[in-house]
Amino acid sequence: MVLCLMVSISTLSGCIEEYNADVPSEDSDLLVVEGSICSSQLNKFILSRTQTLNSSNLPRLVTGATVIVRGTDGSEYQAQAADGYYSCQIGDLNPDVGYYLHIETDGEVYESDPQKPLRTENISEVNVLQETPESNLDVLVTPDAPFDPNKLNYYSWTYEETWEVHPDYTTQIYFDIKTSSPVFDPYQFPSRGWKSITGTSILVGSSASYEGQHIRKAKLYDIDRADERMYYKYSGLIHQRAISKAEYEYESARRQTSTEMGGLFTPLPSALPTNIHCLTSNKHVIGFVGCALNTSEYRFFLIPKDYSIDHPYKKDARLWLEDCDEQICYQMVTKEGMYLCEWKDERYRPGGKLQTAWAYDYQLDVRLRGATDVKPDYWQD
Q: What is the rounded (10 degree) CA torsion for 367, 373, 378, 380?
């Protein structure tokens, strides 16, 4: 089995990955097409132009193009431009019909080769392996047994990650500057939150070395055992799509170009295999438009106690005032912008003092660390 890692600048969806290689001047200004035709979902496509060698410019998105998904049966799905991308909702594709992408831009017409949509097996299981207590966690995927065990099978995988985060400190009180006293309020900050990202990698694999052409426990990615993703609870969503041998070869060649650009034996971007052609001139095109009858998804959860996680103990970094009064508390709120966390008032006893602990909002509010306090529908407590 061969597994290739495709690193991108931005992954748009389970079917789409942006590509922005630096290229020599003779290979600049080529049309780059990213996206796949997928049944029963919103399809997104991105069009851009290649950059000259060592260009520091951002990807040059192509706007104002006409983008249509067409079928050999005469069906059409017009894509609409949105946020720099072209999107169209596609219904159920006919497995006996070939589908292709039609593009008109800058006076040129481009089309991909018609392809019948490929069926994708379900994902049988996702395993997480930690070989030693000091190892990172490897995420492994096993598709269902292939529909046809007598031929090579090719897949692409993408993934999304969600994990629970907790604030550095919690508080159930605040100092009311109007009454100069502490007030009980357990809901001023969320007790936890969630972060989510879409993996910036597309991985492709072949069943060539597997018995019965059945891929088993292929590594997709790993999670650092000291990463905050594993401190409390983690969930991953794996997307799987069957791809053709030609698309697999394109992704494999693109990986070489992306990671070794400028090497003596590195193929130029215009030499990448492609199924997209310019019908009005001899211009080269970069990209490969696949076609899938379905995609498969598998969500899994990880609990830290099941693994050896490096969650270091942090020394209390709150500001403790060992001997203060209400006037000092007032200044902590109004001048320092801090929040009351602890209130230990023993002034009623001879020699007793008021002790308080203070923290900044970013230490108390996970939303200021990029998290949302809205629990995902799929989250399991």
A: 100
